[in-house]
Write a structure and sequence with these properties.
The protein contains nine helices and 13 strands. It is α+β, with helices and mostly antiparallel strands. Strands 5, 6, 7, 8, 9, 10 and 11 form a seven-stranded mixed β-sheet that branches. Strands 3-4-2-1-13-12 form a six-stranded mixed β-sheet, with helices on one face. The termini are far apart.
């Protein structure tokens, strides 16, 4: 059965094709040139779409109309959005586990594919980072495209093998107001201690806590770390910022019993049958938002299914070049602060 949104997409494409054919007919005035600018394109379709079935003078679409149409055409039946479209006074915050993200494991073409994913977002928490050099190379690729990014990079963390965390952010949209720090873990309960930093975007100030949880050989190992996450959350709250967002690769489904205490104060944006690994096997990556202090959350989230869009479901190619995990993201308002 063809989904409703697929029908809408097909109708959109068909309408644009009809308008383009009309624009090439060579007659004057140009058929389909609704806005009278001498060309036929998406703005003309948008005017038609926003005035369909209405009478009277045509309504001229605004930026908000444009965002609505673009978002609506890319909403999956599950409720998640395909693209992190932001309007005025909004930012996108993402989490991305990039498989063995190191300068030795990626050539420039592969880093370009990773940059394609990153440039969609204003602020990204990165897991599985291995070295500073790959960060510098990625930022240079983004800069060459006209996208200015900065990064906070952690020291190495881990037991037998080490990784780093990073926060990539657009300085024109997001300000880092504190340097990063690891969660104080005197009992060594985490294989890789969570890492946090504080940011501000407009009126919205907040702390991000990111984690790459243990996978281990049993689910019990994973649950042991997940059961400590409320302690991590409370420790972050004690630093004075009530907007604490916990995001990363948790290696557990958000409905797991190990998150029972964390769920009393926070909620995950990605739930149900959605999957964040490219094999469609697991929902491990997530963004947890505080229930009481998370009013800036705009209610829109998504999973970047790059493995389907870019690699045609070739999981081996997608994993080798980019990752076996998909970025997850949520949209937040910067026009208010509930502190």
């Amino acid at each position: 059965m063809v989904s409703f949104w697929r029908v809408i997409r097909r109708c959109t494409v068909a309408a644009i094709v009809v308008l383009w054919i009309a624009s090439t007919a060579g007659s004057q005035p140009i058929p389909g040139d609704v806005d009278g600018d001498g060309t036929v394109g998406f703005p003309d379709f948008l005017i038609l779409a926003t005035n369909f079935g209405k009478s009277g003078d045509p309504h001229q679409p605004t930026v908000v109309d444009t965002i609505f149409v673009v978002d609506t055409l890319d909403v999956y039946p599950s409720g998640d959005y395909a693209h992190p479209t932001t309007g005025p006074g909004e930012i996108s915050i993402a989490s991305f586990n990039i498989r063995i993200y190191s300068t030795g494991s990626r050539d420039d073409a592969e880093l370009g594919l990773i940059a394609d994913r990153l440039e969609q977002f204003d602020l990204i928490a990165i897991q599985e980072l291995r070295d500073q050099d790959v960060v510098d190379r990625t930022i240079a690729i983004l800069a060459a495209r006209g996208h200015a990014y900065a990064a906070i990079v952690s020291d190495e963390v881990g037991r037998s093998s080490t990784e780093r965390y990073a926060f990539f952010y657009r300085p024109d949209e997001v300000e880092a107001i504190e340097s990063g720090a690891f969660y104080d873990d005197p009992g060594d309960l985490f294989i890789r201690e969570p890492y946090h930093a504080r940011f501000r975007a407009g009126l919205f100030d907040f702390r991000l806590v990111t984690i790459h949880a243990v996978f281990g050989s049993t689910k019990a190992e994973r649950r042991a770390e997940a059961e400590q996450l409320d302690e991590v959350y409370q420790a972050a709250l004690a630093l004075g910022e009530p907007d604490v967002i916990v995001l990363g690769d948790f290696n557990l489904e958000p409905e797991d019993e190990a998150f029972a205490v964390l769920r009393t104060t926070c909620f995950p944006v990605v739930t149900g049958d959605l999957r964040t690994t490219i094999t469609e096997a697991s929902l491990f990556d997530n963004v947890w938002i505080p229930t009481a202090a998370g009013t800036e959350y705009a209610g829109r989230f998504g999973i970047d299914r790059f493995d389907q869009r870019v690699f045609g479901n070739d999981d081996d190619a997608a994993s080798l070049a980019v990752s076996d995990h998909r970025p997850v993201w949520a949209i937040f308002s910067t026009l208010e602060d509930d502190d």
